[in-house]
Design goal:
Radius of gyration: 17 Å
Shape: elongated
Structural class: alpha+beta
Strand order of the largest sheet: 1-2
Number of domains: 1
Largest sheet: 2 strands, antiparallel
Order of helices and strands: HHEEH
Strand content: 5-15%
Length: 101
């Protein structure tokens, strides 16, 4: 298998569809970029336009479902050390706090 071709199919076959109107993403960022993102999210939360959860990790995990290596495979990317689960917990806590306001 050609490594470059496989890398292209990994990207093409990574999870990207959302079905419940919730944006979820795993991003790679430096400290300054992350600080700006969190500042923006905090501003938007205080304005009442969104709630969010974030989990910061120094590594990521990729879980693969491979039906065949050429075309039919899916890849799910998540932060290590809790990823989406911890971010969701933070978001739910924010939602509960905002419900009491």
């Amino acid at each position: 298998m050609d490594g470059e071709d496989y890398l292209n199919t990994v990207t093409k076959n990574s999870d990207f569809q959302k079905f419940d109107d919730t944006l979820r993403m795993t991003i790679d960022s430096n400290t300054e970029q992350r600080k700006k993102l969190v500042e923006y999210l905090e501003e938007q939360m205080k304005a009442g336009t969104l709630v969010y959860g974030i989990q910061i990790s120094d590594s990521a995990l990729m879980t693969c479902m491979v039906f065949d290596r050429k075309d039919r495979h899916l890849h799910f990317v998540d932060g290590a050390s809790g990823g989406y689960a911890l971010a969701a917990k933070q978001m739910k806590n924010q939602m509960a706090e905002n419900a009491n306001i």
